[in-house]
Amino acid sequence: MRKTTAIDSGNTLRFQKVSDQSLPELACKSIINILKETKIDKKEIDGLIVSSCSTEQYLGSIISEMININPKISTKIENLCNSGTSAIFLAHSLISSGICNAVIVTGIEKQNSPGNKLLWDITRGIYDLPIHWASLFAKTHFRYYNTSEEDLALVSEKNHKNANENPNALFYNKKFSFLDIMNSKKIVDPLKILDCCYPCEGASSILLVSEKFAKKSENPIWIKGISQNNQGASFANISSDLRSVTTTKTASKEAFNQANLKPSDIDIAELHDAFTILEIMAYEDIGFVEKGKGSKFIEQDSIHINTRGGLLGCGHPIGATGIAQTNEIILQLQEKTYNGRQRKNCSRGLVHNMAAAGTSSTIIILEK
Amino acid sequence: MNLKETIFEKFKDGIFLNTFCPHCKKQIWPPSNNCKDCFNKTVLKEIENKGILLEMSYSHIPKQENFFGIGDFSGIRILGTIVEKNIKVNDSITIYNIKIIDNKISIEFGNYNK
Ligand SMILES: [Zn+2]
Questions:
Q1: Do A16 and A200 touch, CB atoms closer than 8 A?
Q2: Domain contains A131
Q3: Burial letters for A94-123: b for 16+ Cβ neighbours within 10 Å, e otherwise?
Q4: Which structural domains are found in chain B, ordered by start?
Q5: Domain count, chain A
Q6: What distance separates the 2 farthest-apart alpha carbons in chain A?
Q7: pLDDT category, B113, cuts 50, 70, 90?
Q8: Residue A163, beta-bridge partner list
Q9: Residue range A161-207, pLDDT digits in tens
């Protein structure tokens, strides 16, 4: 029988615009924070997966040497904005197959990451920034479902407000009112600058363990479902219907099947809000609300959404994002958040991470 | 020259070539040396320059302040500049200018016949 995987603990450093620290230094700082706290012995770490879009060589082995571990596997995963949860997926596979018992996943990125833009995709023509495809998704949603700029601003307002409770968020100290957002600079219609996440530097790490090792964990959180779907890479070729993100729908269905749960069983979720419209589409594509009703779901309180501030409020250090999202759910389920953002009575959470116009998405369902 | 370079070279003459699978009788886009389904070798073929506008928006980005959209030309979907003001989604469009800018395909389309 396939074994399950537990998450022992995680750590996220404060996201920032730039620093003079190297990628391995950022990773070590975050990993050391985990190793200082966990009951898992450092000698027992038998896997290290680095998530980053950096082209720096041999990061897994460099970081292994810097923290003095000798894992069975030490490698790097790159899957653009979906790198972090891809690395968690790999760690889970190593553990559930019985190859490894304790795997550290560390996501690291600098602000000027090559992951900010997909160069291969010639179908984007000269309109090759992420905001171009995001604006076309938004235009379609507006046309079919009467979603409005005000709806988008509500998403941004909510997530920035949540970021004010998260000291690790890039915009922790920045307050944005609904009017600030509505009056912010237009970039590509209907998206304004405060509808967009901000590329930044960051590190976030997580320790995954086998069932056997989880007995040593103080407060293990279990992976009940994990699924990814990949439809290709080119925006114009893959996205024939801009009303939905197919990969999110497919990955969600599979993850809920694995967990034997349904969307209404989820108490808290981290959704990939690289642009405000993507959060609204994620509500629908995951199945929290029916297609076209996403804008009505923004101000609901049955499921806590993006309590750390989302990508909009935290910033987006590409390879670290999926791990930071997962860590927020871990902290919430372990009831370990601080600064007033702890939500009560949450036992099941969901992580949604995606890349390159939704050409790939990952869904993780977690339970305490 | 590799496939992309060959196709981009033709853009300089205003010709939009793409790869076509003679066996499956369909366009293989983005261009590829082999058909993605039957894996037979593809041949180069000029694309239809008439299509449909699937979605559009307006860019306020400096030096790019214009309408743009996603056009579907017999299954080849690509983003391009819209050079017509009175145009809406689902309108028929015609490619009327193609070139390479900064190693990217720059196409212009509108809803009138050349
Ligand atoms: Zn074929």
A1: yes
A2: no
A3: bbbeeebbbbbbbbbbbbebebbebeebbb
A4: 1-47 (no CATH), 48-114 (2.40.50.140)
A5: 1
A6: 57
A7: low
A8: none
A9: 999 999 999 999 999 999 999 999 999 999 999 999 999 999 999 99
The identity of residue A198, as a single letter, is Y
Per the confidence metrics, is the pTM higher than 0.90?
Answer: yes
- Residue ranges near ligand 1 (ion) with Cβ within 5 Å: B 21, 23-24, 35, 37-38
**Nearest-CB residue to B104 (from A126, A135, A136):** A126
DSSP helix/strand/coil, A59: helix
Residue A143 has pLDDT above 80, yes or no: yes
Q: Distance between CA A191 and CA A161 in Å, rounded?
A: 19
Provide, as residue numbers in chain B, all residues whose Cβ is less than 8 Å from the Cβ of A236. 70, 77-79
Residues spanned by the domain of A315: 4-112+198-367
Largest interatomic CA distance in chain B: 45
- Residue A93 within any structural domain of the chain: yes
Residue type, A189: D
Per-residue pLDDT at A2:
56
The answer to whether position A331 is within a domain reads yes
- For tokens 């957002």, the residue is A181
Within a domain: residue A334?
Answer: yes
Residue A173 DSSP label: T
In order of A49, A110, A262, the CA distances from A324 in angstroms are 15, 15, 24
Kindly tell me the sign of the dihedral angle through the C-alpha atoms of A280, A282, A288, A291: positive
Cα–Cα distance for residue pair B71/A251, rounded to 1 Å: 28
**Confidence check on the interface: ipTM exceeds 0.85, yes or no:** yes
Residue B84 · residue A213 · CB < 8 Å? no
Q: Which two tokens stand for residue B25?
A: 């009788």
First and final C-alpha spacing in chain B: 32
* Contact residues of B toward A, CB < 8 A: 4, 29-30, 54-61, 64, 68-70, 77-81, 89, 101-102, 104-107
